[in-house]
Amino acid sequence: MSEMTTETATGGCMRVAIGDGDSGFVQVLCKRLDRLGWEHRVLTGTVPVERLVAMRLGALVLDLALLGPGAWEYLERVTRELPALPVVVCTGQSTVSQRVRGLRMGADDWLTKPCHPEELIARIEAVTRRRRQAEGPGTEVVLAGEIEVRPDQFQVFAHGASIDLTRREFELIQLLAAAEGRVLEREEIYQRVWGYTMAHGDRSVDVFVRKLRSKLQVASPDWNYIHTHFGVGYRFAAQQAGAEREALRAPIAEAAPEPGPAPGAVQAPPPEPARDVRLLA
Amino acid sequence: MSEMTTETATGGCMRVAIGDGDSGFVQVLCKRLDRLGWEHRVLTGTVPVERLVAMRLGALVLDLALLGPGAWEYLERVTRELPALPVVVCTGQSTVSQRVRGLRMGADDWLTKPCHPEELIARIEAVTRRRRQAEGPGTEVVLAGEIEVRPDQFQVFAHGASIDLTRREFELIQLLAAAEGRVLEREEIYQRVWGYTMAHGDRSVDVFVRKLRSKLQVASPDWNYIHTHFGVGYRFAAQQAGAEREALRAPIAEAAPEPGPAPGAVQAPPPEPARDVRLLA
DNA sequence: TGCGGCTGTGAAGATCCGGTGATCAGCACT
DNA sequence: AGTGCTGATCACCGGATCTTCACAGCCGCA
Fold it and tell me: How much is the pTM?
């Protein structure tokens, strides 16, 4: 049951950079990483720290031998400038004092070659686990229109201010926002938010959609976020109230961040609550 | 230099428990730990998890050989119930698959004996460093409203006067303040303050929140600091009592009464700037 | 155009959750 | 042993939340 989940909390999959000169080892390792679905990049030398930043790595594997004489210096620079980046040194024969030095310098683990790729992976997981632990099961943050859904904090922000939602309301908007642009059926929504199958005639989803709409209306009056699909369910998509248009039958309605017109534009008293276009052929 | 403070967020200096049967190795190790000023305890067998909790450890060193047949089970139990506790397995000969199993199970590092005490210490430091960092900067002073949380002194000040808090109370406010603006779930709070997983129905967090609120109320009557998120947890944010700031958190304001823009009205919520930006996630 | 079904809306009741005060055990110190 | 403090647990209560219902309005279709 130690079968571990390869999915990481950081949204997609784990991203690892490997700085190692042993091409045979790297090849085997990469094959294994592929099977796990981890993204990986092989570094051929000392990559500038800024480049490492750009890679948005989840972990870094380094063979000090590859780096040549400036290896220690480089290791120190990396650990100093990217303290959040887990670093596993995987290198050939070494003395105790070298290992101690490396670990004190900021490396998270030190593995001596020859080593088994599986152990290296397990050690990467171990150091990464510690870091993930604090970040929680944060799925992706969703930005749409004027609001921001933060699954990691149980909060939704509008203009940077928190919108007070109950747990159910939050779970509902999180589900909808995660499926941005797609229509979700009531049954599926109920199933995934409430956890069990919806009884026939249950209107809970409708009621909560109404509550959500109400709160979103207060926080972000010029936008509509939740659209009804008659006879089907609901769809989440940011849409500015004034703009009557929405890409008709676009399968993936992309959240248009700035639909042209000036933001503070004329917002007449909305007895005309911008009825969304119903497709559903 | 890597001269680190032995201070941990949980109190005095680093506290380590060693479960190892090799008395010679333990003796050498302890002598070294003494010189470092680390507190240490030697365990002679499988200590119940509750006892480990009571020790308020900073790290645990385990020799699986000492634990006998139930070693794996014990390791799993420890890592499951005390996920915040860094565990370094230091044991005799082992196969790759054993090491992988241990690491996957939750151990943070695996060292094969014979090993040098200095390396073991360096590895303990490494995993502890990673954990401290993941838990956030526990040493940073937090200023909010009229109070000041000083993790370095275990004190909270209001108007410069110290507020008398107990250990738990302080750890709680420190945790909340460090996550200023974010909602923390009860489970997570309990996990990180009490150190083990929260039993179902436990109200300890609530009770301590109440104590904290009570003391903060006395020291800083015009402010609210700890906000309840129903069904979720708590959020720390300084908020002046009189001012009806955070206009967006009105409970279900019905249909917007004044669609007229009311420009100057709800704008720029100053007490909610704490949106952390996580790069290099 | 009219009808049946689906959805929006408001409210009432049931249910759940968190605030509050009190009690009790463990511990350090006197 | 006595005292004072800390922390754990409990029961109760008020209020927030969730469910359910009835009705009104809207949509699709014949």
Answer: 0.72
